Every structure is written in structure tokens, then in C-alpha cells.
Amino acid sequence: MKRAFDIVVSALLLLATAPILLVAAIAVRRSSPGPVIFRQVRIGQHGRPFNIFKFRTMRPATEPGREITVGQDNRITPIGAVLRKWKIDELPQLVNVLRGDMSLVGPRPDVPSYVARYPDELRRRVLSVRPGITDPASIKYRNENDLLAGQPDPERYYLDVIMPDKLALGAAYATRPTLTGDIRIILATLRTVVTDR
Question: How many angstroms separate the CA atoms of 70 and 156, rounded?
Fold first, then answer.
């Protein structure tokens, strides 16, 4: 049921947001040199790597740098900042959902270097389900970049404080995922994007 829901809803969303996708693609292309779509290896269900798709929001020469983005990161282009604010940069992940790499709702997929730091039991539980475009941790840490900007060592704070909490939330979700729960999370995500609360 969850997979069927993912396929139907992601296909409908791709059709509904096609004009936004087109405008965003043109804006990214004109804003700075480089590809429109940013691809990065993430770890999916059962530890399988896949390429996640996003609209490129950073300058290509610097994007492969550190793994986290902090505050008003100078790597982010002006158009990229707008796409990030409204989460438009995440829309290409609907293609990941159709391909079966991801689900609409599930623990956010991490890069291999961070997954390697997961405690064994949490890694097993979090990777037992498809990763998602959104999840409870995405809602709780919707302003993560600003939170990290206030830390003297942002990456250390992420690894020591934020990542363990995200893992706990992801493991709790993976233990009992339900379609009604997914719908609530999607609606809550839309509310936070629109109201920033």
C-alpha cells in the first residue's frame, strides 16, 4: 500500500509542479555555470547506495566541499537560497520516489561517511525502510542550517547532537510506519514550508 501511494502521489505531484520545475530549471541554468541537477551518493534501504537528485543550489566549484550547509553559506547562489527556502530544490526527488530509491516519507538518506558513523542497531533499523523526502526529523530540524550557524564547530555539533536525535526519530518511524502517519507527516511538512513554523 505504501509503495502504491508513493507512486501515485509522486506522479501526480510531478505533473502538478511541472511549471515550477521548468521555471526552477531555467533559473538554475541562468544563475551560474554548471548542471541544473545536483546528484550525490546517498545510502538507501538495506545499505544500497543511490544517486539523490536535487536542483543545484551551490556553485559547482565548491559544492563537493563539507557535507553540511551552515547558515548563509557563501557557496549558495541567490537563486539557490530561494529554492532552499521553499524546498523547491527537493522536488526532483519525486523522480527518486518513482524509481524506488526513496519514499515520500521515511528517514532522510545520509551520505556514506555519516552512515558509517551510525551505531549498528540504529543503522539496521533506519536502513530497514526506504529513505524519504520528509520525515519527523525534517520537520523538527527545518531550520537546521541556522541552528548550525550559531555553533563554534558546526560539523561537530551536527555529529554529536543533531545526528543522534535524527537517528532516534528515524528509528522510531521505521519501527511502525503507517499510511495515515505518512499523510500526517506530509501535511505537517507542507504547513512548515508555507508558514515556516
Answer: 12
Contacts with 45 (C-beta within 8 Å, 6 or more apart), sequence order: 127, 128, 129, 130, 131
- Tens digit of each residue's pLDDT (9 = 90 or more) over 65-93: 566 776 567 788 999 999 999 999 999 99
- The SS3 of residue 103 is strand
The neighbour count for residue 142, using CB atoms within 10 Å, is 17
Give CA–CA dist 193/129, Å, rounded.
25
Per-residue pLDDT reduced to its tens digit, 119-170: 999 999 999 999 999 999 999 999 888 888 888 998 899 999 999 999 999 9
Integer Cα distance of 158 and 20 in angstroms: 32
pTM above 0.85, yes or no: yes
The grid coordinates of residue 55 equal 536542483
CA dihedral 129→70→117→138, nearest 10 degrees, is -20
